[in-house]
Amino acid sequence: MQHVYDLSTLHPERPALLTIGVFDGVHRGHQHLIAHLVSEAHAHHQQAVVLTLFPHPDLMLRGLRGRYYLTSPERKADLLGAIGVDLVITYPFNEAVQHMRAASFVDELLAHLKLAGLWITADFALGYEREGDFAFLESQGVQKGFAVRAIDLLQNGADGYVVISSSTIRAALVAGEVDQATALLGRPYSMTGTVVHGDHRGRTIGFPTANVETWDEQVIPANGVYACFATIEATGERFKAVTNVGQRPTFDGIDTRIEAHLLDFDRDVYGARLTVEFVARLRGEQKFAGIDALVAQIRADAEAGRGLLDNYKAGDHAGFAPTQTLP
């Protein structure tokens, strides 16, 4: 899989079947749509291409601030590549792009891609004031030699529907409902960062933790204690873990931290890159009367987390049936 940030660097040999969107999180709806595009492209000896926007248009158009993303551009590209996408273009969304006319954007795509087809949802639009809607792009395709296809939304089940969207996943994480986020993503929500030195209190009470410094624009699940898997990037080793997210109220902490206690593990991992996958929330954040009460609760959390993770099966999201997907 090739990942680029600049269209001008491309020199494609094969025609491209393209879809455009933000695709934050690469959730089950995205996966469903893109898997069909990949299958169609490869059946016709075409490149499966995804153009994704960064920064997220919401941040510019709605003036949003703080932690908003479910995936970094690099993580998103990796997830798309795992579906079979051949080329991911992370296209810079800035003020100039915001005011670009739709026809000009199409011409830029044509100048750098052998564009054979464009797959979009019926409500998709690009360009200045969203002038490049489906009808406009279909007309451009007729004029300029590429096919435009409307992608159907995923629907399943007869008892109403559940909408899969990035915003729904963000809301679930902010509420601490990581099991719901897992169901919508099709995998546990994860955060990757470098293990940095903290105040070393965990080691003094018998529960050393890896203090993970993550990307400051990615959503953090609600404060609390979680059963997790933790993977050391350099070696690929994966461990069961119990992770505290929060301000450490027993010690009067004020900054939000992600501190993973890896079970059955006793090595120095400072400076290593660690990926934490949030499987289940064990409890909310609590303040304890003293160290003894805290240690007793940590022991209970570790046992509860171990039992849950011992029985965890990837892909087992019982009770969830996706019935409609939004891009």
Descriptive keywords:
10 helices; six-stranded parallel sheet; alpha/beta; single chain; 327 residues; 30% helix
Q: Can you walk through the features of this model?
A:
By secondary structure, the protein is an alpha/beta fold. It has ten helices and 14 strands. The protein has a six-stranded parallel beta sheet with strand order 1-4-3-2-5-6, with helices on both faces. Strand 10 (224-232) and strand 11 (238-246) form a beta hairpin. Helix 7 packs antiparallel against helix 8. The longest helix has 20 residues, at 291-310.
Topology (SSEs and partners):
Layout: E1 2-4, E2 16-21, H1 28-43, E3 47-54, H2 57-61, H3 73-83, E4 87-92, H4 95-98, H5 102-112, E5 115-120, H6 134-144, E6 147-150, E7 163-164, H7 166-174, H8 178-185, E8 189-196, H9 201-204, E9 210-214, E10 224-232, E11 238-246, E12 257-262, E13 273-283, H10 291-310, E14 324-325
Parallel strand pairs: 1-4, 2-3, 2-5, 3-4, 5-6, 7-14
Antiparallel strand pairs: 8-9, 8-13, 9-12, 10-11, 10-13, 11-12
Helix pairs in contact: 7-8
